[in-house]
Fold this protein.
Amino acid sequence: MSAPKHATLATQGLVTGKGGEGMEGMEGMTTRPAVRLGAVAVRFRTKRKDVTALRDVSLDVGSGEFVAIVGPSGCGKSTLLKLVAGLLAPSSGEVLLGGERVRGPRRDIGYVFQRAALLDWRSARRNILLQAEMRKIPAARARARADELIRMTGLDGFEDAYPHELSGGMQQRVALCRALLHEPPVLLMDEPFGALDALTREQMNVELNRIWRETGTTVLLVTHSIPEAVYLADRVVVMSPRPGTVTEVIDVGLPPEREYAATLVSPEFRTATGRIRELLGAVSAHD
């Protein structure tokens, strides 16, 4: 599959932290965004006080785009993913997925969490196929898709292994295959590599970049790692402390295909990571 058409993303992907400012009259908008958050706020009540988790957040994500979200702990990054997935309703504003308002849990997304959450008694293949059983995907089609994903993620030879026989990186590959089995147009990833060692995390970054280019899936990634965000994403959304708002959006300016070592020393990478660190006020402890 060809790489996403990044030339149109500047017009598809306007992001602003001020309600809907700038979202009207977007010249050059040629296609409907895959994801739209419009003036979203999330408020909830605890035993002690009322809390505003997100305030006035607007975000458009173009089809096939990779957007990373960074910010301090507790700023609402994971809450944004839950809104898109329909697992949480906004207190105000709206969330659209493929132009359709999100009103409840969505079946047309993939979700990868920090922990692989594999079933210990099922092999890698059968963990992947659990998605098919839950969605009642025809068995032959599901097996063919699972085989394709196993090859794509480098799990060949490990498909019959059980979770305790797999490394952390391999377990996350299985979780990624499971999330992609039904070919979702949007993939949500909530700090998926945070528990991995540094070397494995780098390898998974490289693999994820390749898989994204091959599938053309729209990706929203939450991460605490600034280098990871810049290496993987077309754009990086930098959020403020709670109540979370969009501080700035960084256009990374790198080509879709990225050789790891060369990318980390490129001017574009240094400029983007430097600006994000400046905005966040400190170097991420997870870098």
In short: Residues 82 and 88 are 5 Å apart (CA to CA). The longest helix spans residues 198-215. Residues 118-183 form one domain.
